[in-house]
Structure formats: structure tokens, C-alpha cells
Amino acid sequence: MVKTVIFDMDGVIFNTENIWRDADYYANKLYNITIDEKLRQSFCGKSELEIKEELKKLYNDLDVDQYRKTIHEYVHQKIDEGMFDVKEGFLELIKFLKENNYNIALATSSDMARIKKLFNFKNLNLNIFDFIVCADDVGKRSKPDPYIFNLVAMHFDIPSKDIIVLEDSINGITAAVNGGFIPIMVKDLISPNEYCFKNCKLILNNLNEVIDYLKK
Fold first, then answer.
1. Looking at the whole model, is its pTM more than 0.90?
2. Contact yes or no for 115/136 (Cβ under 8 A)
3. DSSP the chain
4. Chain CA centroid to CA 121, Å
């Protein structure tokens, strides 16, 4: 019986993916490099270490550390300005899960400092989650490696086949599939591709639709 749900953060709980996109465009212009949207989206869900390694292979003359620092500074500034919102249906879904005794986990490629900053800004208590796994816990083993989700399964001692993963990125969906979890894509900036249509349990428009699914 499915009684455990894992949330990704950016693009699922908060509409922050557009900030990351704008930050990338800003940095690309500043550093005079070209990263098309397909490549940019391929970074979504991956760890900072892995993104830097890929960039170093693609751009030999780029100061990758400074480039990524520029992106993060842009994102932090927009977050400090409150340029993001809680995604539609998140609070309603949490309420439903709590009332029906689900295990609730957060599994994100962001570090804990950034997680706290986002949740504090929106006056949300991290205690709504029974377990949290973040970039600090996984090192280079980021999505599409299922390790981050496997840590949740091990914590609750529940088989992956009985755990729902809510994701908006292709890497996140792939990680869920690779680990044998139940992948549900909640659409944000990234459009579902053929892989998603083939492998996702559901592809939904918002988190309220997750409630409708669980009620069935």
C-alpha cells in the first residue's frame, strides 16, 4: 500500500525554476557562452559538483567556479526579493497527506542552507517533512542516480515500489524510474518528453491533482 510521498523542491514546491533559467541566461551573456535550453534543462536536478564537471568538459576557457557563483548570486538576490511563490496545491496536498498518515519526505539537489532560506521566507516549517535528504547528503550521486530517493526508502524501511516521487525534471523522473519508485511528473518549465510519457505513472498540471489521484 502506497503511504509515502517524496517531494522534489524547485519546480514542485516553489516556482523557482524560472529564476534559475533567468540566472543562466544572465550568466551566459556575461561570460559570452552559449548554452541552449536543452542543455540547460539537462542540468536540472543534478548536483553542483556534477554540473561543474560537465561545464569544464564543454568550455575549456570558462572559469566554471566563477560562472556558477554568478548564477547562484543572481538566484539568491531574486529569492531575497521574494520573486517566487509556493506552487499551487502544495499546502492542500500536505494537509491531505498529514490527515491520512502518509510519510512525507523532501529530496532535493539543493543544500540545506538554501532549503531553509526558501522555507523561512514563505513562513513554512520544515517539520512538515518526516525526513529530508539534500545535496549535503549525496555528494556527486545526484539525479538521475536514484541514491537520493533510496536514502528515503531506507529511512522508512519501505520498498521503492510503494513510494511516490513527485518531480518536475527529466533527471528526477529518470532517478525515480531507475530506483523502482512510482514517478509522477508535475509539470513546470520542462515539458514531458517521450521517456516521461512512457515511464511516468501520471503527468499532472499541479499538486491538487495528486490529491485527486490519491483519493482514488
1. yes
2. no
3. ---EEEE-SBTTTB--HHHHHHHHHHHHHHHT----HHHHHHHTT--HHHHHHHHHHH-TTS-HHHHHHHHHHHHHHHHHTT---BPTTHHHHHHHHHHTT-EEEEE-SS-HHHHHHHHHHTT--GGG-SEEE-HHHHTT--TTSTHHHHHHHHHHT--GGGEEEEE-SHHHHHHHHHTT-EEEEE-SSSPP-HHHHHH-SEEESSTHHHHHHHH-
4. 18
Instruction: Provide the residue ranges of all domains of the chain, joining segments of one domain with +.
Output: 4-15+85-215, 17-80
Q: Which of 96, 120, 89, 97 lies closest to 13, judged by CA?
A: 89
Class for the domain spanning 4-15+85-215: alpha beta
Angle at 130 between CA 127 and CA 133, to 5 degrees: 100
CA angle 37-66-68, nearest 5°? 35
Q: What is d(CA 34, CA 109) in angstroms, rounded to the nearest whole number?
A: 24
pLDDT in tens, 148-184: 999 999 999 999 999 999 999 999 999 999 999 999 9
Query: With contact defined as beta carbons under 8 Å apart, do 12 and 166 qualify?
Result: yes
